[in-house]
């Protein structure tokens, strides 16, 4: 394959929370992969910053261990790892105090891109932004990267946006939603706006309904303390599923540019109708492995599953419901966006001839690809009988070795930060709009003291969620 990797500009990337779990699992392995692909120039440097007192060599050892734990053996070339570790530096820093900040200023170089990754709890975002500013560390085009959760409601998101805005311009703030960095999510835009085939049909006249599913096999595991305060609505729907919904439903932006794309996404969020309680199902897993065993509160009412029916109040989508669902401890891991087209307006075939509907599914994970179901004649004698067959394209099969490994979302996103491209990051007003839509739903649950229904660990979710579609004469696609 011809390498299309274009090296980025020299940079200093500071990872606050450099000894944390996200750094270990995602950020550093992603950086190593970009390094291995030749995307990091000679002068690139990665500086870990955290409370732990240790020197650069000790951090490098820890990073090496993380790479070995989270990357496939085949990618672990000894010489490459050694070269990568040479790019690393480390600094003990006190986020809430003064310790380490002058030293950090001393380490930053002039004339290179600066990026500061806030891989820490949101309670520290303000303190970090303030110190980067007051110690005159960040240059005028430095970038800060903030992880989710970005607030837990509209008020806290607004406060966070205001604090960051005191020290950084919106063009410098990169709010990560790692779903936007997923290869197939970007492909959704290529499929919609790079082909003439789908867009003319992409509206209420031809689309019966859309299903967006993010199913996980894992439970809340060791994250019970965080998760129990969030639930599926805050943890997944307000951000990841909302972003998938936006990209599926938005109008074509005039350019694939940050504000053009984000303007269109924002319009979708603002056009969402409030959701009636009857259109939401909240569930909690139980059985051999129960949600209540994973969290401290034995009477927790937090949902680990949610299914909902949404309406987008605009010309394009009037009358086409979007069904969203996500859950932990489901029978399989599978995320997809499925567009169910309407039946042909009139059938020329016998009533019992069979199916006449097209379904387009975009699989985000696992086995990224797209699949279009088309109706054909069943081969053989016996008259005109119709069947649906897949026009299936697994990216791995279609592109073969050219596809290489499917890059992790963080690889793409971190390089976009260095390149200064905000297209796949959330703008402040987008996050606020998403919370403005989410808040009344959560408040309603609290007011009505609603309890989630239960579903069996390893199942497809609660019965009630199946009913949500059945009552509309529809059914969920099976979670593969
Ligand atoms: C995170 C959520 O943002 O996304 C987790 O906090 C969830 O609860 C994860 O498991 C899912 O991400 P992915 O990339 O594994 O689908």
Mean pLDDT: 93
Return the string of H and E elements: EHEHHEHEHEHEHEHHEHEEEEEEHHHEH
Unreliable segments of 5+ consecutive residues: none
The CATH topology of the largest domain comes to Dihydrodipicolinate Reductase, domain 2
**Shape-level CATH architecture of the largest domain:** 2-Layer Sandwich
Shape: globular
What's the story with the biggest beta sheet? Answer: 9 strands, mixed
Strand order of the largest sheet: 14-13-12-11-7-10-9-8-15
Structural class designation: alpha/beta
Quick description:
With 480 residues, the protein is an alpha/beta fold. It has 14 helices and 15 strands. The mean pLDDT is 93.
Describe this structure in words.
The longest helix has 26 residues. This protein folds into 2 domains: 137 residues, NAD(P)-binding Rossmann-like Domain (Rossmann fold, 3-Layer(aba) Sandwich); 270 residues, Dihydrodipicolinate Reductase, domain 2 (2-Layer Sandwich). The mean pLDDT is 93. A 9-stranded mixed beta sheet has the order 14-13-12-11-7-10-9-8-15, with helices on both faces. The protein has a 6-stranded parallel beta sheet with strand order 3-2-1-4-5-6. It is built from 14 helices and 15 strands. Helix 6 runs antiparallel to helix 13 and helix 9 runs parallel beside helix 13. By secondary structure, the protein is α/β, with parallel strands linked by helices. 35% of the residues lie in helices and 20% in strands. The two termini are 32 Å apart. The structure holds 6-O-phosphono-beta-D-glucopyranose. 6-O-phosphono-beta-D-glucopyranose (BG6) binds next to loops.
């Amino acid at each position: 394959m011809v390498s299309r990797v274009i090296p980025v500009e020299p940079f200093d990337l500071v990872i606050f929370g450099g000894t944390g779990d996200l750094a270990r699992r995602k950020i550093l392995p992603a950086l190593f992969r970009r390094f291995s692909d030749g995307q990091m120039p000679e002068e690139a440097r990665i500086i870990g910053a955290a409370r732990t007192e240790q020197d650069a060599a000790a951090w490098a050892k820890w990073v090496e261990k993380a790479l070995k734990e989270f990357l496939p053996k085949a990618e672990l070339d000894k010489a490459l790892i050694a070269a990568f570790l040479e790019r690393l530096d480390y600094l003990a820093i006190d986020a809430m105090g003064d310790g380490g900040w002058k030293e950090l200023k001393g380490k930053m170089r002039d004339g290179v891109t600066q990026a500061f990754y806030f891989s820490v709890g949101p309670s520290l975002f303000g303190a970090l932004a303030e110190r980067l500013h007051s110690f005159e560390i960040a240059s005028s085009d430095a970038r800060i990267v903030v992880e989710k959760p970005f607030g837990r409601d509209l008020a806290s998101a607004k406060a966070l946006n205001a604090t960051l805005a005191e020290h950084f311009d919106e063009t410098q703030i990169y709010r990560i939603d790692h779903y936007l960095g997923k290869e197939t999510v970007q492909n959704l835009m290529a499929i919609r706006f790079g082909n003439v085939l789908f867009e003319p049909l992409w509206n209420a006249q031809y689309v019966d309904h859309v299903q967006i599913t993010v199913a996980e096999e894992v439970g809340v595991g060791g994250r019970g303390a965080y998760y129990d305060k969030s639930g599926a609505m805050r943890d997944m729907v307000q951000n990841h599923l909302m972003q998938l919904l936006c990209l599926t439903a938005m109008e074509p932006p005039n350019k694939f540019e940050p504000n053009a794309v984000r303007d269109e996404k924002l319009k979708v969020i603002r056009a969402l109708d409030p959701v009636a309680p009857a259109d939401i199902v909240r569930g909690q897993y139980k059985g051999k492995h129960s949600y209540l065993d994973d969290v401290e509160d034995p009477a927790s009412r937090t949902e680990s599953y949610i299914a909902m029916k949404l309406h987008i109040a605009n010309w394009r989508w009037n009358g086409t419901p979007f069904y969203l669902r996500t859950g932990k401890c489901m029978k399989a891991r599978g995320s997809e966006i499925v567009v169910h087209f309407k039946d042909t307006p009139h059938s020329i075939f016998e009533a019992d001839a069979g199916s006449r509907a097209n379904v387009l599914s975009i699989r985000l994970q696992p086995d990224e690809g797209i699949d279009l179901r088309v109706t054909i004649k069943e081969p053989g004698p016996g008259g005109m009988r119709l069947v649906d067959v897949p026009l299936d394209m697994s990216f791995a099969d279609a592109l073969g070795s050219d596809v290489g490994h499917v890059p992790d979302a963080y690889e793409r996103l971190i390089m976009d930060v260095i390149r200064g491209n905000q297209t796949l990051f959330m703008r402040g007003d987008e996050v606020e709009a998403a919370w403005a839509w989410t808040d009344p739903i959560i408040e309603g649950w609290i007011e009505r003291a609603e309890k989630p229904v239960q579903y069996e660990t390893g199942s497809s979710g609660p019965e009630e969620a199946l009913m949500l579609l059945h009552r509309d004469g529809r059914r969920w696609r099976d979670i593969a």
